[in-house]
C-alpha cells in the first residue's frame, strides 16, 4: 500500500482518537463512579461533535484521510449520531447521583435551573435532538433538510458555553481546556466557512451551459464551457458539487460526476431521480453553473493495477463515461473489461459512443448486460467472461444494493478489499 | 443504518428515563417532597443551637454549618455543580472544612459564599 492509500484509511481512527483525548486528561487520579462516567461521556461527546463539524467542511485537506469525500460524509453521519448518543447519556448518568438522594432531587437536577451554564447545556441538547430527529426520521425536501441542519451550529454554540462555564473538569484542567478550545475554534471556523458564508468563501469555477441533451434511461448530459477562462482540472471518474443558477432549479449544490475527459469544455451527466433532478431537462443555454471540486478518488488512474474490470449499473455509467472518453489519451497498457448492466436494451445510454470507443481502443472490451434476459449481473457471471478476474482490480458504480451485493461476491471469491473499488452516490 | 438504530434506542431510553423521573416527581406524595423551609428568615440575630442543626440531617431536610453560620441547603442539593454527594454527608453537621477545601480542589469561589449568604442562610450558630 502506498503512502496515500495508508493515509486514506486513517480518517475514522483519527476521529476516535481526537474524541477520546479529553478522557486522557482526566484519567490520572480518576476514581470510577457513575457520575464520572457521565462527565466522560459529555467530554467525549462534545469533542466528537466538534470533529464532526470540522468534517462537514469538505476540505481537500480532510479528504486526504478518507476514501473520497463520500467516505468523509459517511463518517460525519456515523460519528454525528454517536456524539448525540453520548450526549444523551451524559445528563442521565449525572442524574444518577441525585436519584440516590431522591427522585425529586433528580427531577430538579434535570429541569432548567438558575445556573446559566446548565441551561445552555439543556438548550444545546434540545436543538441537537430536534435537528437529528429531522435528519434520521423525517422524509423532507433536501433544501429544507439542509436548512434545518444548519441549526447544528446553534446547538454547538450553546454546548460550547455549557462546557466552558459549567466548571468541573474543564475548569480545573488547563490542558483539557486548551485542547477543547482549539477543537471548538476549528469547528466554529469551519461552520462559518461552509454553512454560513460558503457563497463568499468557498472556491468555485463558473461555467456557462451550452446545451442539455436527453439520453436513454432518463439521463441528461449538460455541456458547459468556462465563463471566465478558468477551467476545473480533474481525473476521469471524479465528481463535483454543482449549483445551477436557473429559472427551473433552486440554487442548491448537488454532487454530479464529470462525464467528459479533463479539458476545457465540460460534460456532466445527470439522471432524473428526485424532485431536483427531474427538472434538469429545463436547463437552458446561457445559464450559469458554479462548480466546486473536484472530489473523489474513484478513477482508473488512481489504481496501480492496469488490468481492471469496470461494472456500471444504470446511472453508475456517469463516472465511467469520463473514464471511457479518457482511454484514448491513457497508457495503452491498460486492459479493461467494461460491464454495463441495465434493466433492458432500451436503457443502454450512450451505446453507440461506447461501441465506437471500444472499436478504437483494442485494450477495451465492452459487455452490455441486460438483466431482463440474463438475470442480475454477478461476480460468478463476470468470472465466466473475464477468466483472469483474480488478477484484476474491480471498479463498481451503480445502485447501492447492486454495489453491496457485487462487492461481497468479489470478496467471497477471494479478491482483497483494496482490490474492489466502489463509488457511492449517497453521501452517507 | 446501524447508527440510526443506536440513536433510536438511546432516544427511547432517554425519553423513558426523563418522563419517568419527572412524572414520578410530579405524582409523588407531597409529604415526601424536599423540605423547602423558607430561608432568609426575618429572625436576624436569632442564634441556632448545634443540637437544633443536628435534627436537620437528611437530604430532604438538610442544614449545614459553614464558618459558624447555619444554612438550609436542601434546595441546593439537586443543583450543586459538585454533585449531591459533596453536601449530603454533612447534613446536620459542620461542613466548613469541606466547603473551604472541596476535596483538595481548593475553596469555593467568592460567588458561592455570597449565594449561601443571600439565598440559604438560616442564622448564626450558637457559640458556647
What does this structure look like?
The complex is a heterodimer of chains A (428) and B (128). Chain A has 428 residues and is of the alpha/beta class. Chain A contains 17 helices and 11 strands. In chain A, strand 7 (307-313), helix 13 (317-326) and strand 8 form a beta-alpha-beta unit. With 128 residues, chain B is of the alpha+beta class. Helices cover 38% and strands 12% of the residues of chain B. A 4-stranded antiparallel beta sheet of chain B has the order 1-2-3-4. The longest helix of chain B is centred in the N-terminal third of the chain and has 26 residues, at 2-27. Chain B is elongated, with a radius of gyration of 19 Å.
Question: How would you briefly describe this protein structure?
Answer:
The complex is a heterodimer of chains A (428) and B (128). Chain A is α/β, with parallel strands linked by helices and 428 residues long.
